[in-house]
Design goal:
The complex is a heterodimer. By secondary structure, chain A is mainly alpha-helical. Chain A has helices at residues 2-22, 26-50, 57-87. Chain A has a single domain (2-89), classed as Helix Hairpins (Orthogonal Bundle), CATH 1.10.287.3510. Helices cover 77% and strands 0% of the residues of chain A. Chain B is mainly alpha-helical. Chain B has a domain at 330-511. Chain B has helices at 12-30, 38-62, 83-103, 115-120, 122-134, 138-156, 163-194, 199-207, 214-231, 239-247, 250-276, 287-310, 316-337, 348-377, 388-391, 393-407, 413-427, 431-457, 472-490, 492-502, 505-509; strands at 72-74, 79-81. Chain B starts with 11 loop residues before the first helix and ends with a helix. The interface between A and B is large, with 44 and 44 residues. Chain B: Its main location: membrane. Chain B: Belongs to the complex I subunit 2 family.
């Protein structure tokens, strides 16, 4: 029972990681990070219900994660808006002004 | 186990920062526009100092010669006030005080529009670092980590009008978010293997867990090392560091390089020695020996990659970023060599802590010098140092001391710290690691000395850049850092014996 949940979480995590590393649109990159964090929540809740020692702590942990992920997404979008105002692009391949 | 009102006094260092952050942010809103916001910077420094005083008070209580206080555990064992936490809190607080102090008078209005925000955002960031150092539970650890990270994302991006800053902040939040997700994924496996989020309970559950779960232990550990390796900028997870350091304002860079990195080490030390230590039972080669090996490999990679990449940098900030990567490698060594029963070695913490102090001061000093150079020339190119000896001989002398310490030459704090780490590695017969450490240190001489060469050998600096633009706080910061670096080099035994007196891994970590 638990293995199917864990597999789903792992697949979501990897999809999120792939998207965060390869997508060109900055908004999608931020969304993919949310996907990774939500994969972890799924993992925690599966363990909380079907784990070796089922307990409520996993669900509480995932509540904390949801809150923190919301804060992180808000800051991410804010930074992206500031970037867009100055550069008028949300394309991560054009973010290459550093290094020089 | 409920939180009593009387327990709140043990949280006074943290509560001071919370209250100060609220008050100062409200003050920033109600003060009229014509009031200079530097006053908020001073208020932040004062609140950090009060918090430091509380930390020192509890350190004394925990170490009275007669009837010392036992380490305090609060909030259902999720928060602990012990010597380990207090020592790290001192590093965070003192580092933040210096960084705030040197930025007073250097934050320009056209650069950072909301100067009040710039000053008081350091408080929640440091609070997050303090929570990381003293938590005994995965949830508090993660909340502290994110409080520090999210606040530093904002601080990195605070020069809103600067395209480079925006880019650096975006890169930082993407990499930092991915790193957080990795740490969290590793933590979720720890929870799954034990059914608990308390670090001690997880350790007990892992020690007796079935060997069929070994794979999951490895997976969780590697995920956490990858995530935390990103936060402390150890190779091969270091690629964000140079770009973010370059784009951020210089004091913020100093914060990322010192306090934020030290917080990552506090968390890693706590996790490695409280959660993973002793995992795998009594076999001839228990699992945790492999796990320690992984840390040592990351350390070696960070030393090699950091020092080699620093060789070709032309911008001082990028050079210091890669030097920070290399230093993360040195600092990982005492964590990774572990406590072996066959070798008498138990001074891991004092090695780590001593080098962290030295690293803190030499880096803050170096970044303060860089601020002065940037004020003079407007950019952070290596050639900004050209002829510094002829322009500002005393500052040049301080820079030489700081660079000698960074390179690890006697008689400086960085040298002594490196020697202690090296001796620790030799004691547990990790010869290959000692060789990597010595060779990479030799490589590092080249790029540190290129700065010294600029200062003394180059005389063709541009006219008009003759005078070094040194503000009083920057000068004081440079000199305090230099003096502390020299003192650490001449009198290391006082510091070391003090750390050894108050920190013993047995009483601090393995209390049940």
């Amino acid at each position: 029972m638990i293995s199917s949940y864990l597999t789903l979480a792992a697949v979501l995590f990897v999809i999120g990681l792939y998207g965060a590393l390869s997508k060109k649109n900055a908004v999608i990159v931020l969304l993919c990070i949310e996907l990774m964090l939500n994969a972890v929540n799924l993992n925690l809740i599966a363990f909380a219900k079907y784990g070796i020692n089922p307990s409520l702590k996993g669900q509480i942990f995932s509540l904390f994660n949801i809150t923190i992920a919301a804060a992180e997404a808000a800051v991410g979008i804010a930074i992206l808006i500031a970037l867009y105002r100055n550069k008028a692009t949300a394309n991560v391949t054009e973010m290459n002004s550093l290094k020089k | 186990m409920r939180l009593q009102l009387s327990d709140l006094v043990y949280l006074s260092p943290e509560l001071t920062l919370v209250i100060a952050a609220v008050i100062i942010s409200v003050l920033d809103l109600i003060l009229p526009n014509k009031v200079n916001r530097t006053i908020l910077g001073w208020l932040s420094i004062v609140s950090l100092m009060i918090s430091t005083a509380f930390v020192i008070y509890y350190m004394r209580l925990l170490n009275l010669s007669e009837d010392p206080l036992a380490p305090v555990q609060l909030l259902n064992l999720s928060y602990r006030v012990d010597d380990f936490a207090n020592l790290f809190k001192l590093i965070f607080l003192i580092g933040t005080i210096f960084i705030l102090f040197m930025s007073i008078g250097s934050v320009k209005k056209e650069d950072i529009h909301h100067r009040g925000e710039y000053y008081y955002l350091f408080l929640p960031a440091t609070l997050g670092a303090m929570i990381m150092a003293s938590s005994g539970d995965l949830i508090t650890l993660y909340v502290g980590l994110e409080l520090l990270s999210i606040t530093s994302y904002i601080l990195v991006g605070i020069r809103k009008g600067n395209t480079k800053t925006n880019e650096a902040a975006f890169k930082y939040i993407v990499v930092g978010g991915i790193a957080s997700a990795f740490i969290l994924y590793g933590m979720s496996f720890l929870y799954g293997l034990s059914g608990s989020t308390n670090l001690t309970e997880i350790n007990q559950a892992l020690q007796v867990s079935d060997s069929s779960f070994e794979l999951l232990i490895y997976v969780s550990f590697m995920l956490i090392v990858a995530g935390l390796g990103t936060k402390i900028a150890a190779a091969p997870f270091h690629t964000w560091a140079a770009d973010v350091y370059q784009g951020a304002a210089t004091p913020i860079t100093a914060y990322l390089a010192t306090v934020s990195k030290a917080a990552g080490f506090a968390m890693l030390f706590r996790l490695v020695y409280l959660v993973y230590y002793g995992v795998g039972g009594q076999d001839s080669s228990p699992v945790f020996i492999d796990l320690f090996m992984i840390i040592l490999l990351v350390a070696a990679a960070a030393m090699i990659i950091g020092n080699v990449l620093a060789l070709k940098q032309r911008k001082v900030k990028r050079l210091l970023a890669y030097s920070g990567v290399a230093n993360a490698g040195y600092l990982l060594v005492p964590i990774g060599i572990g406590l072996h029963s066959q070798f008498p070695h138990s001074s891991n913490f004092s090695e780590l802590y001593f080098y962290l102090i030295a690293y803190l001061f030499m880096n803050i000093g170096a970044f303060a010098v860089l601020m002065a150079i940037e004020r003079t020339t407007g950019d952070g190119e290596l050639k900004g140092f050209a002829g510094l000896y002829y322009r500002a001989p005393y500052t040049a002398f301080a820079v030489v001391i700081l660079l000698l310490s960074l390179a690890g030459l006697p008689v400086t704090g960085g040298f002594i710290g490196k020697v202690f780490i090296l001796l620790g590695a030799l004691q547990v017969k990790a010869y290959w690691l000692a060789i990597v450490m010595i060779l990479t240190s030799v490589i590092s001489f080249y790029y540190y000395f290129s700065i010294i060469r600029q200062m003394f050998m180059r005389t063709n600096f541009e006219a008009g850049s003759n005078k070094l633009n040194l503000s009083v706080p920057i000068a004081i910061t440079i000199w305090i850092s230099t003096v502390v670096t020299i003192i650490l080099g001449f009198f290391p035994n006082y510091v070391l014996s003090y750390i050894n007196d108050i920190f013993t891994i047995g009483t601090d970590f393995f209390i049940r």
